[in-house]
Amino acid sequence: MSQGAKIDTVRSYSSGVVGRALNSARTHHFVLDSSAGPNEALNSAEAFLAGISSCGVTLIEKHARDTGVPLRGMDVTIEGIRGPADPTRFETIDVRFDLAGVDQGQAEQLVETWKAR
Q1: How far apart are CA 74 and CA 97, in angstroms?
Q2: Per-residue confidence at 103, pLDDT binned at 50, 70, 90?
Q3: Residue ranges of the domains in the chain?
Q4: Host H or E run for residue 76
Q5: Which CATH superfamily is 43-117 part of?
Q6: Which of 20, 59, 82, 89 is the most exposed place for a label (fewest CB within 10 A)?
Q7: How does residue 25 score in pLDDT terms, banded at 50, 70 and 90?
């Protein structure tokens, strides 16, 4: 491990309900359900996809601010497609970025910055 590495730790443990895990990260506690159910809480696949899309929002907003790009806001939509033959794997993941306050070239550069990281 490199010196100065940032370590993120999440703990997940049995809830007593099959298909449901209790989780904690720092001082935050949350419930995640399996994609197979019970599907009352956010499921693991949705949490995984949210991590990717929220990274897009936060990374691009910070980069735009730091480089003086006039980004006013953005919306990232992510869709993970899992086939019926193996619903434990994503066949494709599509990400759509809608950026406000920038022209097409600036938007493309901002998205490329995210892709490169």
Answers
A1: 7
A2: very high
A3: 1-42, 43-117
A4: strand 73-82
A5: K homology (KH) domain (3.30.300.20)
A6: 89
A7: very high
Q: Can you list the alpha helix ranges (DSSP code H) found in 1-117?
A: 44-67, 104-116
Q: pTM of the entire structure?
A: 0.88
| Number of neighbouring beta carbons within 10 Å of residue 54 | 12
Spatial separation of the C-alpha atoms in residues 110 and 76, rounded to whole Å: 13
Residue whose token pair is 């209790």: 22
The type of residue at 112 is: E
Contacts of 26 (CB under 8 A, 6+ apart): none
Whether the per-residue pLDDT at 84 is higher than 80: the answer is yes
Beta strands 73-82 and 28-33, pairing class: unpaired
